[in-house]
Amino acid sequence: SIMPATLSAISNGARHGILFKGGVHLENLGNLQAIALDKTGTLTKGKPEVTDLVLRKDVNEADFLQYVASIENYSNHPLASAIVRYTKNKYSTELLKPENMEDISGYGVQAYLDGVQWKVGKAEFVGREEVEQFQNGIALDFAKQGKTIVFAKDNKGIAGIITLKDVVRSETITAIEALKQEGIYTIMLTGDGEKTANAIASESHVDAYIADCLPETKVDEVKRLKEQFGTVAMVGDGINDAPALATASVGIAMGEGTDVALETADVVLMKNDLPRIAEAVKLSKKMNRIIK
Ligand code: ADP
Ligand code: MG
């Protein structure tokens, strides 16, 4: 049965925008040793904007964007939406209908346009070697600025790159510092590459980060953290975070996240309000003292 102290803490939480799907989750937060956080949409706003375009010499910008946007139009990744939005704003061209479109989760998209195969996505997806040859590895400079680079390859190699930047939420640093103050180890997990991950991790003040995570890698990391630390929370917003949310001692979803994340989580931050986590930890510690 649920203790009166727990009940009052849960209803207090709900009034302040943090929803617990059971008293045990609130109690667990008081014992939290480590917290893993997804990058895109959790530490950052999750609404990336196109910042730079670098094209191969023979490539025309309007054509390039029309092709890439036509393919990305069939993906629902936040990067894809940003590229389509940018293209439509800059050129009022009609989008084309690609053939054999494939969306490969965590890597990118591929399709045929006018009989030519296009691959649009991360370096590992289009080919590391070609990426390094493209403009003397210019992509590295962008990655160091915390930008995500989308590579677009046609039948002649990399046709161009589109860089996008997603800004860290204004309350992220406060939230991370408050968790560290409670003695909790903070670690960022992301599908993005090493250099971009490094830049966003230092902007966010997290203790550590792991780049190039596939959804399964996030699960493995949460398992490893549980072995090392004990009680571990995972915070995320995407479909790709759901398995890790289920694996954590406490799964925490961003309120504006996808339905799957909201259903899987034990705790929901109704207004995406990250600082509420540390407040709930403090509340839980106080409550656990009253119960004992
Ligand atoms: P995150 O964990 O950062 O939310 P994802 O696991 O969704 O990232 O994707 C990992 C990486 O794969 C992205 O950073 C991007 O480089 C690439 N990617 C995935 N889907 C697409 C797409 N539709 N268009 C371009 N790039 C993509
Ligand atoms: Mg995300």
Automatic annotation (TrEMBL):
<protein>
    <submittedName>
        <fullName>Cd2+/Zn2+-exporting ATPase</fullName>
    </submittedName>
</protein>
<comment type="similarity">
    <text>Belongs to the cation transport ATPase (P-type) (TC 3.A.3) family. Type IB subfamily.</text>
</comment>
